[in-house]
Amino acid sequence: MLIELKNVCYTYGTGTVYEVSALNNINMEIGEGEFIGVIGHTGSGKSTLIQHLNGLMRPTSGQILCNGKDIWEAGFDLRSLRTHVGLVFQYPENQLFETDVLKDVMFGPKNQGLSPDECEMRARDALKQSGIPEELYTSSPFELSGGQKRRVAIAGVLAMDPEVLILDEPTAGLDPGGRDELLAQIKHLRDKRGITVILVSHSMEDVAQYATRLIVVHEGRIAYDAPPKKVFSHYLELEKMGLAAPQITYVMHALKEKGLKVDVTAMTVDEAKRSILMSLSMRASGAEA
Amino acid sequence: MASIIRASKMGYDYVRYTDESETPERINAIRSLDLSVEKGEFIAVLGHNGSGKSTLAKHINALLVPTSGTMWVDGVDTGQEEDLWKVRQKAGMVFQNPDNQIIGSIVDEDVGFGPENLGIPTKDIWERVDSALKKVGMLGFRDRSPNRLSGGQKQRVAIAGVVAMHPECIVLDEPTAMLDPNGRKEVLEVVRELNKTEGVTVILITHYMEEVVFADHIYVMDKGEIVMEGTPREVFSKVDELKSYRLTVPQVTELAHELKRSGVKIPEGILTAEELVQALCPS
Lengths: 289, 283
Hints:
The complex is a heterodimer.
Chain A: E1 3-12, E2 20-30, E3 35-39, H1 46-53, E4 61-66, E5 69-70, H2 78-84, E6 85-88, H3 101-111, H4 116-129, H5 146-158, E7 164-168, H6 176-193, E8 196-200, H7 204-210, E9 213-218, E10 221-226, H8 228-232, H9 235-240, H10 247-257, H11 269-288
Parallel strand pairs in A: 3-8, 3-9, 6-7, 7-8
Antiparallel strand pairs in A: 1-2, 1-4, 4-5, 9-10
Chain B: E1 3-16, E2 25-38, E3 42-47, H1 53-60, E4 68-73, E5 76-77, H2 84-90, E6 91-94, H3 107-117, H4 122-135, H5 151-163, E7 169-173, H6 181-198, E8 201-205, E9 217-222, E10 225-230, H7 232-236, H8 239-244, H9 251-261, H10 273-280
Parallel strand pairs in B: 3-8, 3-9, 6-7, 7-8
Antiparallel strand pairs in B: 1-2, 1-4, 4-5, 9-10
Helix pairs in contact in B: 3-4, 3-5, 4-5, 5-6
């Protein structure tokens, strides 16, 4: 599914004294199978932006096209759009409500009008892909740990078989183990099912590791839209926007300043390790010669 | 030095009633925990979801009282109901979601709510509010509406609300989990400043390993018990043990650990970018 935004603007409280422009002339294209990270400080407009993608919010002006069709044109099936573009809100575990895990996950497909058998099949499949062990299917969702609840909530969206999965800060409040598992699971889903993933995050380290494209939202505009390496090379500008670069980026820049010939675009521990080892051996052989 | 928080063989069971059985099920959240925190220390508590960190935190200001053993805050046994308010005044708490703990319609009213409940004379309340807002760097926002502030600013207002009660210690339960990088930095700076200049004892619970490299002492919890403790350098040099508790180390520490494993001669337990740069390029 191809989503396009054309000159999208959104203003809160139009015509009142509280009028605030939240999105300002946004243009972008979201292609199939992309893994997009969205970063921006609190109030930058990220959440407003993602709620436009499945038609929860209607732009004040501009167009949102889905496979070339304007989603706000009369006759467009918004309901079906919302099942194809799954949105996982912040703290999705607050939306769990059923008596057991399996029923909770079946709620989405049930609303799509599928038969009970098919709902159950979808739910079981989604739970399996989210890494929930079968013995928990009959537990109350409220008895699970924080990380498990979060994954059940995500399974609830996956069971609708979306083509695009949008997650708003899915790892906030999870322990490091839970965070790594969840992100690995999401990456696996994207690799296996070919779905498009849009990850909104405050963790620069997470988007650096997983996203192939990074969109920086600042004051309702898109400040950068490029591969993470390229975006993080503007780390001083990012800091001015209330953001930062991954810790590793700072280490690499500091090392380079000290004369070690390292790759300053390294963002992950692995990349940094390789680059540092290489430049250290170069320094050693240089010293011998 | 006197300990401000002390626990001896403290345990806590959550009780759950089910339809099937007459006798309630007991879930052991904390088991036989011993703890001693000195006045003015900066303590960090790490642990995976469900390890018992928040249950422990709630014992420090008597939101929960031990089902076995004892917890003392500044010498007061938290299990004594008549001393409840004494305990709550000594230990203030800041939670994860700033929107759940701000009640005033204007910043300074929100900060004044705590001291007002303590029955402080009005004139003194305003003095406390002024000084608390100044300490968290939010004096300029005193007549604003809290819901127009950023996450970091809201969290600083919540901290000011606790500071205005003149507590001996502040317990922060994942105060930065919902904040952007700048908000996180703001909150940590304020907390460190309160600890350094005011001597307030700080107990910080967090999942961000980089936030605790400045702590005096770290406790790691698992299954309701303290399984590791020490200075950040001591705790973070045990990378593999931490990972077995579903935790990790700051990225810089991990990078240093990996480099060392590949044969680079650098010390164990490097905590900051500066230390790593110094170790690799000694000047």
